[in-house]
Design a protein that fits this description.
Structural class: alpha/beta
Largest sheet: 7 strands, parallel
CATH topology of the largest domain: Rossmann fold
Mean pLDDT: 95
Distance between the termini: 46 Å
Strand content: 5-15%
Number of helices: 14
CATH class of the largest domain: Alpha Beta
Order of helices and strands: EHEEHEHEHHEEHEHEEHEEHEHHHHH
Helix content: 40-55%
């Protein structure tokens, strides 16, 4: 039976890059979203609402994927609501697919909040893990919607007999519009505004993040990792960290990003300076830039997720991930982080999302 994939969240950073990679490798690929991505040739769109069981059943009645890739989530006001909504999304989807008995493997993308805690208690004292974080680290004694999503996958796997894999990237870097967690594009837009207005490129985060070691995950290497785990028997029924494979200090990378845009960087000066406040009044500036440079998107909020960038860069500890588990099982792909950002910036410029 030919491999066929259902990519849930195919309009996002992870989902769109994964769909492109699957199609490149010859998979029949369906992309599920409320507003499916129609920019990827050969991606078969599936329009459905994960919170609407009837919508899912109707949309999936003729879809029989061998592999399901869950890359979508929904942000809510509280962690309790995050748990309710995001677990329901996973449960509804796997329930809708269950009667077909076609699914062989389900891959779930979560992230380092598995180790750092949810947004309500993100990297707070008392929940801080030992770094580099390893998959063996036990669940925190705190509510976390990632745990609820995992439990839905485990329960459906026990019922339907498919294998699974859990993937925990650290800050995914890639192109998407309207994404809720999008540091790469957020930094590109902020840097562009700084260049246009003559403002310095101000570091928004903590001293620990500025001076400590860190890593990130290119959406392209995450796509490769998802396909590898789905098709490698020894990687089945396992949770994995996934990052580019290099480490860096933001004190170095911040300067490199500023050089690319030809702007003046301003590093950590003893005070956290949230980007959300820094760009709060810049919608009019962006409107004018969109007209001046003929940009495709004039809504600043569809390009930036400053709240999430502030969370990542404001953490009180350095955070990096251990990749030994994947390496031992044969996943040896590597991606330069500097190139991850530069490649993204070039793509954003080519697609007229930044000037």
């Amino acid at each position: 039976m030919k491999n066929s994939a259902l990519v849930v969240g195919s309009s996002g950073i992870t989902g769109s890059n994964l769909a492109e990679k699957l199609i490149e490798k010859g998979w029949v690929t369906y992309g599920l979203a409320r507003k499916p991505n129609t920019d990827i040739p050969e991606l078969i769109p599936v329009a459905a609402d994960l919170l609407d069981e009837g919508s899912l059943e109707a949309a999936l009645k003729d879809v029989q994927p061998t592999h399901v890739f869950l890359t979508s989530w929904m942000r809510n006001e509280t962690e309790a609501e995050n748990i309710r909504v995001n677990s329901l999304m996973v449960r509804n989807l796997l329930n809708a697919l269950s009667p077909q008995k076609s699914v062989q493997h389900v891959a779930l993308v979560t992230g380092l909040k598995h180790y750092l805690g949810p947004f309500d208690a993100y990297a707070k004292a008392g929940t801080l893990p030992e770094t580099p974080v390893r998959e063996e680290h036990p669940r925190l004694d705190i509510e976390n919607f990632y745990y609820a999503q995992e439990d839905e996958v485990y329960a459906a796997a026990a019922r339907d007999g498919f294998t699974w894999s859990i993937h925990r990237p650290h800050t995914v870097i890639g192109k998407a519009v309207g994404n809720m967690m999008n540091m790469g594009t957020t930094l590109a837009v902020y840097a562009t505004i700084c260049k246009e207005t003559g403002r310095p490129f101000v570091w928004p985060g903590s001293g620990a993040q500025w001076n400590g070691l860190s890593d990130v995950t290119d959406a392209r290497i995450l796509a490769e990792h998802l396909i590898w785990a789905a098709t490698t028997p020894q990687a089945h029924n396992e949770a994995f960290n996934i990052t580019n494979g290099d480490v860096f200090r933001w004190s170095w990378l911040w300067r490199k990003l500023a050089e690319w845009f030809d702007i003046q960087p301003k590093g950590f000066d003893g005070e956290i300076r949230p980007m959300e406040a820094e760009i709060a009044g810049d919608q009019q500036v962006w409107n004018e830039m969109a007209v001046k440079y003929n940009l495709k998107e004039n809504n600043l909020n569809r390009l930036v997720s400053a709240w999430h960038t502030d969370l990542d860069l404001g953490r009180p500890i350095e955070v990096m991930t251990d990749m030994s588990k994947s390496r031992k099982l044969g996943f040896t792909n590597f991606q330069s982080t500097q190139d991850s950002f530069y490649d993204l910036f070039e793509k954003l410029r080519k697609d007229r999302l930044i000037p």
